[in-house]
Design a protein that fits this description.
alpha+beta, Alpha-Beta Plaits, 4-stranded antiparallel beta sheet
């Protein structure tokens, strides 16, 4: 028997099993919320901007091609310096400077991101840690060490300079997405089981009613066998045998009078 997905069948499944779908949605939402709360850690970000004072190659030409060459050269210089600051040698230099300046043996866990600001000679350094003061201190170390390291490698002094001093973070850089994750999980927890029930109903080929039988063949239906189990509870209402035959709930005496 081939079934078709209709709006009536979807509504029927929704009405019948809405309590189960709602319970699963609540369970998913609660799990997602508590998981988000448990794994959420505040992070703080400090940033600084570095100016690259490169000098393009001498060229008196004012053609379009020469302008494009200058732009290409500037991009290469910026990207080269950023790549140099990502090397292990510079990381070791920044680490040693941090431990020496703050007289500590503990180096905080952090992540650093470099981004070139388009159409400028600036690139930005973002340092993120789990501690507000540590992020500021590390960003300050990076701002101090970057010009020194580039000068040490290239031999050209004053190639880099700090254009914007590091900022002290005042609020977490990340947000707690517990409610958002709970909402997404609730929607998934409601839709997923509903879709499963729809698929099960769609591929169910068993015959449950006269209408199902008519969809298979065109033979006339002579009659239906009632569900006796469902009518067991109605015997007291309709009689001893459940269908109005025999004695009702009130007994009749030998004279036919109702007691």
């Amino acid at each position: 028997m081939k079934k078709e997905l209709t709006l009536a069948s979807l509504v029927r499944i929704l009405i019948r099993w809405w309590w189960l779908f709602l319970a699963i949605a609540i369970l998913f939402a609660a799990g997602a919320f508590f998981y988000s709360q448990h794994n959420y850690h505040e992070t703080y970000q400090s940033s600084t901007k570095i100016l690259v004072k490169f000098t393009p190659a001498a060229n008196t030409s004012t053609t379009v091609s020469s302008a494009i060459n200058e732009i290409t050269y500037a991009e290469k210089v910026m990207n080269t310096y950023v790549s140099m600051l990502k090397t292990n040698d510079f990381k070791a230099m920044a680490r040693d400077a941090y431990l020496e300046k703050y007289e500590t043996t503990r180096f905080p866990r952090f992540s650093v991101n470099f981004s070139v600001i388009e159409e400028t000679q600036l690139f930005q350094i973002n340092v993120t840690t789990y501690d507000m003061e540590a992020s500021y201190r590390l960003c300050e170390i990076y701002a101090e060490c970057a010009p020194k390291y580039i000068e040490q490698v290239t031999g050209n002094p004053e190639e880099l300079s700090v254009a914007d001093s590091p900022t002290m973070p005042t609020a977490p850089a990340n947000s707690d997405h517990g409610m958002r994750n709970a909402l997404i999980a609730a929607v998934f927890g409601f839709v997923a089981p509903f879709a499963i029930f729809v698929l099960v109903d769609l591929f169910d080929v068993s015959v449950k009613s006269a209408d199902d039988l008519k969809s298979i063949c065109n033979y006339p239906i002579l009659g239906e066998i009632p569900d006796f189990e469902r009518h067991k509870g109605n015997r007291s209402k309709y009689g001893k045998y459940g269908y109005g035959y025999g004695y009702g709930s009130r007994n009749t005496g030998s004279a036919g009078k109702t007691e």
